[in-house]
Amino acid sequence: MTARKSQSESRPLARTHVSLQTHVKIKNLKAAWRPILSLAFAGSLMAGCASGPIGGSSEAMQQSRAAAQSYRLAMGDKVHIAVFNEENLSGDYTVSPDGKITLPLAGPVNAAGRTVPEFQEAVISTLKNGFVQNPNVTITATELRPYYILGEVNKPGKYSYMPELTVMAAVATAEGFTYRADMGSIYVRHASDPSEREYPLTATMAVLPGDTIRISQRYF
């Protein structure tokens, strides 16, 4: 009777011992796999961020500059007009809601719908008409329509346009790509276009005033 009782008492102890051994093995196994899983997860993050040099070309830079030069002024754009030896005419001007810039004494000059070089010629013609003899005029764009960047950047939003702005500079202004960003191509809708278009991402691609840039998500 006593022997049977001893055997029955020892069985729960044996099962408990086996359970403890199993628990320890599982715990050790989890500990062994944890650094491996961590490295795999880190690798997946790095894969989203890692990229070689983003290429460009001098030809693309020339095309970008030509595209920027072809931009046509619109309401709210700001320019600096410098007229040699005419301080009262020189200064910063904003295109008014009616599309004009008004010069002291010379009066309004149509600006909206003209490129900066075209507007410069219009100002010269206006000043020649009895205001300044042989006017030497230089006009530069100082603040044009803002651009917008959205999608997989760290700080999407609306930003002020600067001349010769590139997509890479715009992304940097938005605090860089997220780790999910697809850095192979981007989507851009120009202010004059009804829908966006897909472009390969290059280091020399220009941003135009009023552009909306979208960085899409990369799928693993």
The CATH top-level class label of the domain at 58-70 and 145-215: Alpha Beta
The percentage helix is: 25-40%
Class by SSE composition: alpha+beta
- Summarize the main sheet: 7 strands, mixed
Query: What's the Cα radius of gyration?
Result: 33 Å
Q: Which descriptors would you attach to this protein?
A:
single chain, alpha+beta, Outer membrane lipoprotein wza fold like, wza like fold, 7-stranded mixed β-sheet
Please describe what this structure looks like.
The chain is of the alpha+beta class and 220 residues long. Among the domains are: 58-70 and 145-215, Outer membrane lipoprotein wza domain like (Outer membrane lipoprotein wza fold like, Roll); 78-142, 2-Layer Sandwich (wza like fold), CATH 3.30.1950.10. Helix content is 36%, strand content 23%. The chain has 4 helices and 9 strands. The strands form 2 sheets. Strands 1, 2, 5, 6, 7, 8 and 9 form a 7-stranded mixed β-sheet that branches. A two-stranded antiparallel ribbon has the order 3-4. The N and C termini lie far apart (68 Å).
SSE inventory with pairings:
Blueprint: H1 2-49, H2 58-69, E1 78-83, E2 91-94, E3 100-103, E4 107-110, H3 116-128, E5 137-151, E6 157-161, H4 167-173, E7 185-189, E8 197-200, E9 212-215
Parallel strand pairs: 5-9
Antiparallel strand pairs: 1-2, 1-5, 3-4, 5-6, 7-8, 7-9
